[in-house]
Amino acid sequence: MAVTRGFTGKQREQTEADRLPPGQALTSDFPVLSAGPTPQVKLENWMFTLKHGPQIIARWTWSEFNQLPQSKMTRDIHCVTTWSKYNTAWQGVMVDDILAAAGIDEATAFTLAHGYDDYSTNVPTADLTGGKAMVATLYEGKPITPDHGGPARLVVPHLYFWKSAKWIHTLQFTDRDTAGFWEERGYHMYGDPWREQRYSGD
Ligand SMILES: Nc1nc2c(c(=O)[nH]1)N[C@H]1C(S)=C(S)[C@@H](COP(=O)(O)O)O[C@H]1N2
Ligand SMILES: [Mo]
Fold first, then answer.
1. Which residue spans within the chain are E strands per DSSP?
2. Nearest-atom index, ligand 1, CA of 32
3. How far apart are the first and last CA of the chain?
4. What are the pLDDT digits (tens) for 154-194?
5. What is the pLDDT of residue 167?
6. Is residue 2 in some structural domain?
7. 76 CA distance to ligand 1 centroid (A)?
8. With CB atoms 3.0 to 4.6 Å apart as the test, which of 24, 30, 105, 108 could cross-link to 173 if both were Cys?
9. What's the number of domains the chain is made of?
10. 38 phi and psi, to 5 degrees?
């Protein structure tokens, strides 16, 4: 039986049957997956930086960043370890609005997102713009807990969730597609859950 559900935003209408990507299983809790210990980031020390290669383009303190336009995004997320979670509700600043605030019309084709735990992950810039991704500060209306990436994390829900860098401090535009932490260790450079791009070669 196909049950049609309505979605807000840019997500297309889907039936329950085609809502779960191949090889995934639905979970209702929210697992924590981190490569290392949770970094303790104090808000007074938190900075968010945009870079082109090594060059700093723009930088915001916590209070400055929170004055940027706020948006909400409710999306399904898909972890490469095969759990998916429906309707995760985030609030923060769309990458589009971050670029606009920095006066950037056209960034380079690729981006590396960097976290305070020295994690990094690569995403094509086109997958961060056009209403597809945000730097989130709230989850279900409350500050994102430290284990889930607070104070702020990237949310790129249409790609496997390892692309959604927790404890984000920098978006670095790069001229070439440069592997991040997991991509250097054999994970896929793009990571589309609908095409099951888990490992390089998939
Ligand atoms: N900075 C940072 N971001 C990260 C990770 C990490 O170890 N460090 N793990 C990634 C992985 S593999 C996944 S599945 C998700 C998990 O997010 P969660 O712990 O909120 O479920 O965060 C991603 N972002
Ligand atoms: Mo993951």
1. 4-5, 14-15, 25-26, 47-52, 55-61, 71-78, 83-94, 110-115, 120-124, 134-139, 142-143, 153-155, 168-174
2. 19
3. 31
4. 999 999 999 999 999 999 999 999 999 999 999 999 999 99
5. 98
6. no
7. 15
8. 108
9. 1
10. -75, 120
